Automatic annotation (TrEMBL):
The keyword Ion transport does not apply. This is DUF1624 domain-containing protein. InterPro entries: HGSNAT_cat (IPR012429). The chain crosses the membrane at residues 65-84, 96-117, 123-143, 195-219, 231-250, 282-306, 318-339, 359-377. PANTHER family: HEPARAN-ALPHA-GLUCOSAMINIDE N-ACETYLTRANSFERASE CATALYTIC DOMAIN-CONTAINING PROTEIN, MEMBRANE PROTEIN-LIKE PROTEIN.
Amino acid sequence: MNTIALTPTPKTTHRIASIDILRGIVMIIMALDHTREFFHHDALIGNDPLNFKTTSAFLFFTRWITHYCAPIFVFLSGTSVFLYAQRNKTKKQVAFFLFTRGIWLIIAEIIIVNGLWQFGYTRFLMLEVFWAIGMSMVCLSFLQFLPYRLLLGIGLLIVVGHNALDNIQVTQPVAASVAWSLVHAPNLYQPFPNYSILIAYPFLPWLGLMICGYCLGKLYAKNINPAYRKLFLLTTGIIIIALFIIIRLINVYGDRQHWSIQQTPLFTVLDFVNTTKYPPSLLYMLMTIGPALIVLAVTENIVNAFTRIVVVFGRVPFVYYMLHILVLHSLARIFMLISGRGSGEALLPGFQVHPNAGYPLWVVYVVWISAVVILYFPCKWYGNYRRNHPQYTWLTYL
C-alpha cells in the first residue's frame, strides 16, 4: 500500500558552506567584544582598549580582533544578496526584498537592538551596524539594476575614495550636519534635553563594502570552476593584504589615524594595525577583507567538528545577534545583583559608574565562552526550523 505524506518535504536550499563558516566565526568573535563592554572593568570606567597609555597587549588584541566582525559581516551580506538573486529571482523581486529587508533592519535597529542594549532606557538612540546594513540594502535595491562592471566600479570607488571626504565638516544648518553624519561622519546629537542620538555607522563606506561583496558573489555561480574560485580568492586576498601593508607604510592616505613609533616595538606593530573603524577607513577594510578572502578559499571543502558548530551561528546571524545581546545583558544584570558591582549601563549617558564596576579580563573570556555555548542550542533549533519551513517566506527577513 502506498502511503501519503501528510507533511511537506523540506525544500533544500543551496548554501555555500564556506560563507556560513566565515560568518559564524565572526559572529562568535563579535560576542567577545560585547562581553567586554558589559563586563570588563576598563570598559565600564571608559578606558579605550586601543589607547596605548592605558591598555595592555592582550586587552588591545581582545578589542582589535573584533574589528574583523562588522566589515566581514557586511561584505558577506552583499554576497548573500547575489546568491539570493540566483534562485530564479527577477531584478524586481530582488529589489523588493532588498528594499523591504533594509527598512526592516533599520526599524529593528531603532526598536529591538536599542531595547536589548539598554533594557528600557529611552533617552539614548544608537544607529549602528543594522542601520548601516539596512540603508546599504535600500541603496543596493536600486543599484543592482546597473551593469555588473559599472556596479563593481562604484563599489571600489567608494571603498578606495571615501577617505578623501574625511576633512569635510558640515556643522550648519543642523539638518545638513545630520545628513552628512548619516552618510560619512559619525557624530552625537542632542535634539532634545536629556535625549541623545549617536550616529556611529555612517552608511556610505559600508555601502561600498556591501557592493563589493555583492559583486564577489559572481564567483559562486554554478558555471565557475571551484579550483579557479579558490585560486582567485587566495590571490586576491594576498594582494589586498600586500596593499594594506604598502599603503600603511606610506602613511599618507587611507586612514585618518597615522601610525607612529611607540614606546615598545610590540606597541609600534599594534599601532600599525590600529586602523579606523568609525567610519571604516580604506586601510581598515583592506586589513579585514584580505584575510577574509583567504579564509573563504581554505574552508570551502572543509567539514569537521569545528565547522559543523560555527555554521550553526553563520546561518542565523540576525537571530544570533539579538539573542547574544539579550543573554549578555541579562548575565550582566545577574552579576550586578549578586556582586553589587556596576553593569554595562554605566556606558550610557546619565548612569553613574560603580567604583568597583566590572571584572578582570579573564572573567570576560569565561562569560564569552559560556554565552556562546548557551546560544548554540536556540540557534541550532531555529536554523532547523527555518530550513524545514520554506513556506514561511517571512523567515528570510530574520
